[in-house]
């Protein structure tokens, strides 16, 4: 089964996809935010196109582990997503995923102009890879 990872942002939504063995994540695409309906439609199309069996959405907890205002926005997004897809949607702690993605791009020498669109896709891959790693350490069930 493939798993879709999502980095939900104000301007863009990064998507990542696991391999069928659920071992590795790779950045898939970036959705430029237009409207809630169109954004959800695009994600539902990706779920269908890639045979996705579950979705992992980055959940922006604060560094102390508490939920803040951003979590409320993601909660509303997840609720909308659950209305348009028939697969499980899992909220997953994304603390510092964007910073990690930016660091990976810096190490790879990615130019500033290219970074803007890439960071969301890579952050989605970081979130999804963290989920996959935790899942494999626990023997295949939900982490």
Report what the structure shows.
- The chain has 143 residues and is an alpha/beta fold.
- It has a single domain, classed as Nucleotidyltransferase, domain 5.
- It has helices at residues 36-50, 69-84, 97-107, 112-137; strands at 2-8, 12-18, 25-32, 52-59, 89-93.
- α1 (36-50) crosses α2 (69-84) and α3 (97-107) packs across α4.
- The longest helix has 26 residues, at 112-137.
- The two termini are 16 Å apart.
- The model has no long low-confidence stretch (mean pLDDT 87).
In terms of topology, how is this protein built?
Blueprint: E1 2-8, E2 12-18, E3 25-32, H1 36-50, E4 52-59, H2 69-84, E5 89-93, H3 97-107, H4 112-137
The main β sheet shows up as: 5 strands, mixed
The CATH topology comes to Nucleotidyltransferase, domain 5
- How many β-strand runs? 5
Number of helices: 4
The level 1 CATH classification is Alpha Beta
Please tell me what the overall shape is: globular
**Can you say what the CATH homologous superfamily is?**
YqgF/RNase H-like domain
Strand order of the largest sheet: 3-2-1-4-5
CATH architecture, by name, is 2-Layer Sandwich
Order of helices and strands: EEEHEHEHH
Relevant terms:
143 residues; alpha/beta; Nucleotidyltransferase, domain 5; five-stranded mixed sheet; 5 strands; globular
């Amino acid at each position: 089964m493939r798993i879709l990872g999502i980095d939900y942002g104000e301007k863009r939504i990064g998507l990542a996809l696991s391999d069928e063995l659920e071992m590795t994540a790779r950045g898939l695409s970036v959705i430029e935010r237009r409207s809630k309906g169109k954004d959800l439609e695009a994600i539902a199309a990706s779920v269908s196109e890639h045979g996705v069996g579950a979705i992992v959405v980055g959940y922006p907890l604060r560094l102390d582990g508490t939920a803040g205002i951003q979590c409320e926005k993601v909660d509303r997004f997840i609720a909308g997503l659950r209305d348009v897809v028939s697969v499980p949607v899992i909220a997953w702690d994304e603390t510092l995923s964007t910073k990690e993605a930016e660091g990976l791009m810096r190490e790879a020498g990615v130019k500033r102009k290219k970074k803007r669109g890439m960071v969301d896709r890579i952050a989605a891959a970081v979130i999804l890879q963290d989920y996959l790693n935790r899942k494999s350490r626990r023997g295949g069930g939900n982490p």
